Amino acid sequence: MEKREQWTSKIGFILAAAGSAIGLGAIWKFPYETGSNGGSVFILMFIVSTIAIGLPILLAEFVIGRRGQADAVTGLKKQAPGKKWFLIGWSGFFFSFMILSFYSVVGGWILSYLGRAILLQLSNLGDADFANLFNGIIGNPLEVLIAQALFMFLTIWIVQGGVQAGIERASKIMMPALLLFFLVLMIRSLTLDGAIEGVKFMFVPDWSFFTFDTALTALGQAFFSLSVGVAGMITYASYLSKAENLTRSALSVVSLNIIISIMAGMIIFPAVFALGYSPDQGPGLVFIILPAIFDQLFMGEFLMIIFFVLMLFATLTSSIAMLEIVVSIGVKNKFERRRTLAWLYGLMIFVVGIPSALSFGVMSEPFLFGYTFFDFIDILTSKIGLPLGALFTALFAGYVLTKKDTALELGGESSWVSIWRILVRYVAPVAIAIVFIQGILDVF
């Protein structure tokens, strides 16, 4: 039997964990939520929510994962023998499987755009043409399925290589490249005439947006952007050495997530305002408005390639985390099965994702409750699965693990550990419950 792998370095773990969190949530969803909710006030609420709610839950998953030193199901069984808490792991298995089934569809869209950008097919198009292009891509059955299959191939190829040779090595390449690409695009955006208006939008408060709805949206964004609730960080932390400081690692992941989210805004909003667009474009901001903006810039074709490479890297770092959750539970301690199960589960996820891929074309009719299959799976996972997973994770860390248990993982008893236990026992569960209830009300 092979020995269970571990991360080769602290930076490898942090980059992999940060990559899991920094996906479409930071690059796609954060900018359009910011644009639709008044800019600076939303950003302020997002940062507060990330630190007060997201960080305690993230650290709870780190504690549970490293303490278990196994996949999420086995690790929870070891820590609470004879109890049903291991269902948190199976919940993570199911919802990671379902999330990746439609997430891979969006990853395929990005590959379609990247291919067109490389072939210089995204130049000299008007705003209406970019909208027609997007609708044409997502409505083309053959293209979306081929692109989805290619994206899943890339994800499987990385995960089947293992923790060190696959996930850690890929994260060490993709995350620094992502930060570099972000920096290049941000500098270009900030040098545009009129870019200062976008900066003001992000950092000068408009207190009229200081509302309960804005706070709730910011809380939801903070919660989902850290990729908690599906046992992903439990899985990654299970490969972590006992010598590493969990609190510092969690702070590093949270800091990177906030920085990348704000940098995404600093790329998008200065360009949006400089070129006369409205910031509240919604989900089409990245796929319709941004290509139109790049098309008007000097070296726009090159910048567009960089942007979609950046999006691909961010999406892949999240997809490999979701597949790793599924594979690790299937592998358990029989590590020689990793390669086989990575390809098997990856193929199954692709098949389950086919209806999502076709939801904007031949299967565009409502599937359930008036939603397409794509939208239904999105809502099922983001508004129900993730909050429930995070809620039970908080309850397990706060009430099942003793203060001594958590202190041993967090470097001894301290005022910080006491504060963290208060947050994870009382504050986080209430906040998660509010998000969950509001999500249910929005759906039904």
Automatic annotation (TrEMBL):
The reply on keyword Transmembrane is yes
List locations, semicolon-separated. Membrane
Which Gene Ontology CC terms are recorded?
Answer: membrane
Q: Which Pfam families match?
A: SNF (PF00209)
Report the membrane topology from the UniProt record: Multi-pass membrane protein
Write the protein's name: Sodium-dependent transporter
Keyword Translocase appears in the UniProt entry: no
What are the record keywords, sorted?
Answer: Membrane, Transmembrane, Transmembrane helix, Transport
The lineage's top-level taxon is Bacteria
TM regions (residue ranges):
12-30, 42-64, 85-111, 144-163, 175-196, 216-239, 251-277, 297-330, 342-364, 384-402, 423-441
